[in-house]
Specification:
It is built from six helices and three strands. It is α+β, with helices and mostly antiparallel strands. The chain is globular, with a radius of gyration of 19 Å.
Length: 175
């Protein structure tokens, strides 16, 4: 290539490099603006979202089936009712403005992990051999592919976040 041709191609090369380096969430759906500004304003008591007697394998399979039919993502929520952060997350996604967004884009399935003693084969199936805290989340597409690689544990400190930041985290995986 001549120097003139290289100079002419430089803006295109720069654009391609920028797009390639852009984080996935740069193209994500816009999160709704959450009316609730503080977790302190969540209705109490907070939900107990995990059914300790559920058949987690069947629940996950059913959520994946529903997601395929409705072309949504699956949000697999690992935790326990003993976990304050898990209950905070459950309270946030039940807020009307957040619930509308979640219902539009996700099939949510909760998986009780006890004290990290049960249902651990489910995250292992996606390459997560050990949960580093709860709540932990796997976002799975309709083909069963993990979408949120490396971001499973971002909400393990949900009680110190804002409702908006929790909702923003959910929005980054939606196209």
């Amino acid at each position: 290539m001549t120097p003139r041709a290289l100079a002419a191609a430089a803006p295109l090369v720069a654009l391609v490099a920028l797009l390639a380096a852009a984080p996935v969430f740069a193209f994500a759906a816009k999160a709704p603006t959450v009316a609730l500004k503080s977790l302190a304003d969540l209705p109490t008591p907070l939900p107990y979202p995990y059914d300790e007697n559920a058949d987690a394998e069947a629940d996950v399979a059913a959520a994946i089936k529903r997601a395929k039919a409705s072309r949504k993502l699956v949000l697999i929520d690992f935790g326990g009712n003993w976990c304050g952060d898990c209950r905070v997350f459950a309270g946030v996604i039940e807020q009307p403005d957040v619930k509308k967004f979640v219902d539009k884009h996700y099939e949510v399935v909760t998986v009780d992990v006890g004290r990290y003693t049960k249902n651990m084969q489910i995250p292992a199936r996606y390459g997560v051999d050990k949960l580093q805290g709860v709540p932990s989340f796997l976002v799975v597409d309709t083909k069963g592919k993990l979408v949120n690689e490396g971001a499973f544990f971002a909400l393990t400190d949900a009680r110190h976040m804002t409702p908006q930041s929790i909702t923003d985290w959910l929005a980054q995986w939606v196209k």
